[in-house]
Write a structure and sequence with these properties.
By secondary structure, this protein is mostly helical. Helix content is about 75%, strand content about 0%.
């Protein structure tokens, strides 16, 4: 593996470890992100920022990678690290939701599906980017990555409509 790709793998791993640590801290109530900032809870701001970033940046970066192939490596790094940071924000929200007390526990439906799709996106993206399983064809991970993205986008709409009481 080339030096830059190896460094990127370590950075990606560090982001995922930091995500897991903060999620555990939120679930154990060592860190509280359920307080209000303006009209919404901080955890909701986190998930909206992360989701909007992914929903807008991922397709834009995909188009730019095809349009400007000479900038492919830079755009790929923006895609990987930007989406991992967005995943981190969304994970904080998810941890906040599942750590709520029983009397105010949320309906997980679409949110759980969306989070599972996000985990699959991260997993398949990292495996695909860093070629961690050379026995499996890249097309397989590309198919799974794209399919997870489709589920993610469809679930965003359903989750928002449910949250607004329209479903």
């Amino acid at each position: 593996m080339e030096k830059r790709k190896e460094t990127d793998l370590w950075i990606a791993t560090a982001i995922l470890i930091a995500t897991a640590i903060v999620m555990i801290a939120v679930v154990l109530h060592w860190v509280r992100i359920g307080f209000f900032v303006g009209p919404f809870r901080l955890s909701h701001w986190f998930t909206w920022i992360g989701t909007i970033y992914i929903a807008i940046a991922a397709p834009i970066i995909a188009v730019l990678k095809k349009r400007y192939p000479q900038r492919y490596k830079t755009l790929l790094r923006v895609h990987v690290f930007g989406n991992l940071l967005a995943f981190m924000l969304i994970s904080f929200h998810f941890a906040s939701q599942i750590s709520r007390p029983a009397e105010s526990y949320p309906t997980l439906g679409a949110g759980l599906v969306m989070y599972i799709a996000m985990v699959l996106l991260v997993y398949t993206g990292i495996i695909q980017r860093f070629h961690l399983t050379p026995n499996i064809k890249p097309q397989t991970y590309r198919f799974l990555h794209t399919g997870s993205a489709l589920v993610f986008y469809l679930t965003i709409v359903i989750h928002i409509l449910h949250g607004l009481g329209m479903l």
